[in-house]
Amino acid sequence: MDQIELHVDELNCAACSSAVEKALTDTEGVESAAVSITTGRATISGNNLNGELLAKVATDAGYPSKVIDEGIDPAKLATEIETRQKKNASAWKRRAIIGVAIWAPFEALHWSAESLGIDGPWIPWIMFLASSASMILVGGGFFNSAIGAAKRMQTNMDTLITIGASSAYFFSLFIFVSEKFFDQQLGYPMYFMEAAALLAIISIGHWLEATSTAKAGSAIRELLKMQPDKAEVIGEDGSTTSIPTGEVGEGVRLLVRPGSRIPVDGKVIDGASEIDESIVTGEPLPVAKKIGDTLIAGSMNTTGQLILETTVDGRHTTVSRIAQLVTNAQSSKAGIQRIADKVAGVFVPIVISIAAITVIGWVLAGDIETGFVSAVTILVISCPCALGLATPMAVMVAAGESSLRGILVKDAGSLELAGKTATVIFDKTGTLTLGKPVVDTVETEGDCTSEDVLKFAASVELPSEHPIATAIVNEAANQNISVPTVQDFKATAGVGVHGKVEGKSVSVLRDDAATCKVELDGTTIGRISVSDEIRPEAKNTIQELHSYGIDVHMLSGDRAETATKVASEVGIKPDNVHAEASPSDKTEIVGSLARPSMMVGDGINDAAALAASDVGVAIASGTNVAMESASIIIPANNIEATAESIHIAKDALRTIKQNLVFAFMYNVAAIPLAAFGVLGQNGPLIAAAAMGLSDVTVIGNAIRLKHKLRKRRIKTQ
Question: For 416-424, what is the mean pLDDT?
Fold first, then answer.
């Protein structure tokens, strides 16, 4: 299938991405479309696709778009993401501040004027002006979204907000005009401040949503930062010129100095060094590179100077591809985020239809006034106040209690899905293991003892900063072995270290049979194998997850033999081990397993897999990219928190479902009463009271959850 990417502007929320996706998928030839509000990019797959036509379709849907054909320029994309997110968050922050500044003081005046003895005919004027200002300055964002949806023959949550606020405002305006300009005392209360309150409170929610989106986007920014902004291009005369990485072409020679990152994928044509490739493999040990070996963009050059020849251009590097994987995976989760809009798509037309039928029915019965009041009552009832609180209140409690256990929860959707988890996938290195190499075995040859092997190896490795060297030196210290001072120390990239110890020539060299071999005056005296230590709590965590009926898998970029050994020690079935997996492999594997799935990882190479799973869980000691890509962060030294997070999520999910029932219960019960005029002239007031009661019920149920979780936490401490 063909694949086309679009740059899409003016995306503000999940409803926006949903609208673009629907417009694109309705186009002939399109099989799927994923739109990321984080990067402002749409990825479309299908047959015989026309990029310009698809861009026009998205533009006609209300979101200006253009075709992208040059791949990802890391520096440019990072700037675009940051600018878009700041603009969106700033707009909703401004609306929230203005909304609260208008609503809070005038609401207080509305309720306290009479008791303070300052009540008078000027009060309704103040309420009218304040509410009008709120409708204009705060309501614009909601109204534009609702109107845009209406043009596309759709509805969203902003449609509900618009109906609720507009009904309260225009009903109040009708009463205000009638009383002030036509001297008709209708006797109905006015709801100017209720309209302002609704806009202010929901604006705060949109602001928090925009802030969360910015945090999610920082994962991609961190990924893009792994690829240097500049690259040193070597000219034909040997001179070097620094140019933006995005402008580097294929087949270009680049100079990579020690301590710098590889700017573009390529192969070594001169020099030798050790490269930290954990960005892709997740493995902590650097890999020796020589002429002819491949280099991966974003990897760290640790020791020697290299000259590479690029095999791709600067816009199609490994870093760019990983960033694209994260973007696509984040976009694929939009279906869950659109549930509220799908509910609104059914709920809103039904409510509007009932209100219209009510007016028509009462008009035919000869009672226009009752029909109008009843219709307004129905529309006020449709306002989703408790619906908006149902999930956030439960999430707030669950997140707060989780934080007391060192578990950080980022969003409601992941908490809901964590409670339904069917599959948990663990990364190996740094997750089930500590990510800190330790000496596994010491084999001796000849007359030397294992202490002799460690003594000479530790002596010559002491000046080195290599992870293997650190493991050997630490093991010697653990065995209280006295380590002599090395002289004439020399390190050779990709080979090993050399030096003189107690007058003897000592070498620690790479070896095929073990991690390294130790030579004394040219004779091998032993071999040392280094492995990664398994976390002490890993086995209990796997057992607990199995007790929940959850299927547990393990991903690793390491060799199958090593991965299977770790899996057997922690209790994971051999068939559930996925070894030698690249970042794209991990993403595909996660997508193929039973859902809802939870991925637990800690490295940059896990970022795309974390985003591809329904719930991404990162270890706090991991990289910023992994933590930003995840929805839940657990303590560095306690992966048992994975099971605890599922416990909490199950309780929270149950409370969310109960809250949603409470939120709809009052509305559903009151709508028929309002339609038949049972609530009378005070129907809108009763409707507002019903919404308030549903709010109190939802909040009370959340408080009950808090007490339950707190009791369990104290019991387990």
Answer: 88
What pLDDT digit, counting tens, does each position of 616-645 carry? Answer: 888 866 555 555 667 787 876 678 889 888
pLDDT tens-digit profile of 586-607?
Answer: 888 998 999 889 999 876 667 7
Tokens of 453: 């092997």
Q: Partners of 510 in the beta sheet? A: 516
What does the pLDDT read at residue 576? 94
Q: What's residue 688's pLDDT?
A: 57
Angle at which helices 192-225 and 318-332 cross, to 10° = 150
| Its pTM surpasses 0.85 | no
What angle, 0 to 180 degrees and rounded to 10, lies between the N-to-C axes of helices 122-137 and 74-116?
170
Signed CA dihedral, 368, 369, 370, 375: sign only: positive
Give me the chain's average pLDDT, please: 80
Do residues 476 and 461 make contact, with C-beta atoms less than 8 angstroms apart? no
Within 8 A by CB and 6+ apart from 417, the residues are 336, 596, 614, 615, 649
Sketch out the chain's domains with CATH numbers: 2-69 (3.30.70.100), 79-223+332-385 (no CATH), 230-316 (2.70.150.10), 408-422+536-634 (3.40.50.1000), 434-533 (3.40.1110.10)
Q: Provide the token pair at 345.
A: 């798509």
Under 8 Å CB-to-CB from 289, ≥6 apart: which residues?
268, 272, 273, 274, 275, 295, 306, 494
Report the C-alpha gap between 518 and 498 in whole angstroms.
Answer: 10
Contact 207, 85 (CB under 8 A): no
Active site residue 427: yes
Catalytic member of 73, 265, 276, 427: 427
Could you tell me which residue, 205 or 674, shows the higher pLDDT?
Answer: 674
